[in-house]
Design brief:
With about 250 residues, this protein is α/β, with parallel strands linked by helices. The protein has 7 helices and 7 strands, in the order βαβαβαβαβαβααβ. Keywords: Oxidoreductase.
Length: about 250
C-alpha cells in the first residue's frame, strides 16, 4: 500500500526539517525524488542521505521565486529520471525577509517576501509541472501550509499567514480545474513543529500546548505527504488537512 515506484517527486525547501522528511518518506516508498533547496549544499546532503538508504534522488537547487530557474530545475529532474515530475510538494515557505513583528511595526519593504514565496513561489512550481500531469492523466499537488493561514495569531506572523491563506484558496480552485484529469491537489496545514531548537525548555513549553504532548516531526510530515501522494487517495482532493496534534479541529 502507498507504493510510489515509477513516480518522480519534486519537494521544494527539502534541504532541512519538514521538507527533508517529506523527501525521505517519498523515496522510501519508491519515488525518485528531486530535492530542492535554495542552498545547494543542503539539497545535496539530503540527496546523499536518500541514496545511502537505497533510494533514488537528485539535487535541484533553485529559487522558487525565479520562474526560469524553476522550469530549468523541473526539466533537470525529468531528464535525470527519464520521467516528468508527477508529484509536487510545495514546502518552501520561509522568506529571508520574514521577521516576527506586529504588522503596525513592520516596514512595508518586508511585506512582500512572505506573501511572494508562499503564493508566487508555489504558483511557479505548479505551473512548471501541471501540463505534464495533465498529459499523463495523473498527478499530485501537495501544498504545505500552516495553521497561521487559518487562525489569527498575535505572534507577528500576519503576512506569513496571509500568504498561506492565499495559496490554500488557490489550491482549492486548482483542484476543481484538474480533477477530471486524474490530478489531486490538497493542502497540509502544519501546527507547531520541532525545528531542532537548541533550547529544550522552549521545546517542552511548546509541546505542552499541544494535546498530544509533543511537537510535529519530519517523520509526521513525511507520512502525511506519502498518504496524499498515493494512488489509494485518488478520491481525496481540494482539502486542507490539519496536521497539528489536535491543536485545532475542523
Amino acid at each position: 500500500m502507498f507504493e510510489l515506484d515509477g513516480h518522480v517527486a519534486l519537494v521544494t525547501g527539502a534541504g532541512q526539517n519538514m521538507g527533508a522528511g517529506a523527501a525521505r518518506a517519498l523515496a522510501a516508498q519508491g519515488a525518485a525524488v528531486a530535492v530542492n533547496d535554495l542552498v545547494a549544499g543542503r539539497a545535496e546532503a539530503v540527496r546523499d542521505e536518500i541514496e545511502a538508504a537505497g533510494g533514488k534522488a537528485v539535487a535541484v537547487p533553485f529559487d522558487v521565486l525565479d520562474p526560469d530557474a524553476v522550469r530549468a530545475g523541473v526539466a533537470a529532474a525529468g531528464e535525470a529520471f527519464g520521467h516528468p515530475v508527477d508529484i509536487l510538494v510545495n514546502n518552501a515557505g520561509i522568506h529571508s525577509d520574514m521577521v516576527a513583528r506586529p504588522f503596525r511595526a513592520l516596514d512595508p519593504a518586508l511585506w512582500r517576501g512572505p506573501v511572494d514565496i508562499n503564493i508566487f513561489g508555489s504558483l511557479h512550481c505548479i505551473h512548471a509541472v501541471i501540463e505534464n500531469m495533465v498529459s499523463a492523466h495523473w498527478g499530485r499537488v501537495i501544498q504545505i501550509s500552516s495553521g497561521a493561514g487559518r487562525t489569527g495569531l498575535a505572534i507577528g506572523v500576519a503576512l506569513y499567514g496571509a500568504g498561506k491563506s492565499g495559496i490554500e484558496g488557490f489550491v482549492r480552485h486548482l483542484s476543481q480545474e484538474v480533477a477530471k484529469e486524474g490530478i489531486t491537489a490538497n493542502t497540509l496545514a502544519l501546527g507547531m513543529m520541532d525545528n531542532s531548537t537548541e533550547n529544550p525548555d522552549v521545546t517542552r513549553a511548546l509541546a505542552g500546548m499541544v494535546p498530544t504532548g509533543r511537537l510535529g516531526t519530519p517523520t509526521d510530515v513525511g507520512a502525511a505527504v506519502v498518504f496524499l501522494a498515493a494512488e489509494e487517495t485518488s478520491w481525496l482532493t481540494g482539502q486542507t488537512i490539519n496536521l497539528n496534534g489536535g491543536s485545532t479541529m475542523n
